[in-house]
Amino acid sequence: MTGKNYRLNPSFFRQQRVIALILWTLLTFFLLGYESYEHWQDNRATVLNEAKAAFEKDILYRRWSAMHGGVYVPVTKETPPNPLLAHLPERDLTTPSGKRLTLVNPA
After folding, report:
1. How far apart are CA 57 and CA 70, in angstroms?
2. What b/e string do you get for 34-70 counting C-beta neighbours within 10 Å, with b at 16 or more?
3. CA distances from 2 to 5, 6, 12, 33, 88 (A)
4. How many Å apart are CA 56 and CA 63, to the nearest integer?
5. What is the pLDDT of residues 21-64, one digit of tens each?
6. Type and span of the H or E element at 50
């Protein structure tokens, strides 16, 4: 040592503790933000995969139904007979109980 008086100063240690506490708090908030962002990305990926799976299931069902000629539904205001399918002889059917059905082509 070059002759300087190095003694332990309590205020110096107090400053070091405050700085360490601030740095620790900043590090904690940074890690919390990073983990939250990672969690958000994982959830987003899961939601997108679920949406894609549901969409693919619907498309698969529509293709299967279209391969079999469509689906018959009761005739209502919401589902009137489709004029674009008027050329099909079995577009409109009546069940033995008298219920009217019309062909809905999901394709």
Report:
1. 17
2. eeeeeeeeeeeeeeeeeeeeeeeeeeeeeeeeeeeeb
3. 9, 10, 21, 47, 106
4. 10
5. 999 999 999 999 999 999 999 999 999 999 999 999 999 988 88
6. helix 10-67
- Please report, in angstroms and rounded to a whole number, the separation of the first and last CA atoms in the chain: 89
What is the token pair recorded at 2? Answer: 């070059």
The H-or-E segment that residue 102 falls in is strand 100-104
Query: Which one, of 70, 65, 54, lies nearest residue 102 by Cα?
Result: 70
How many residues are recorded in the chain? 107
Strands 100-104, 92-94: pairing kind: antiparallel
Cβ(75)–Cβ(104) below 8 Å: no
100 beta partners: 94
- What is the per-residue pLDDT across 74-89, written as a single tens digit (0 to 9) for each? 998 888 888 888 888 8
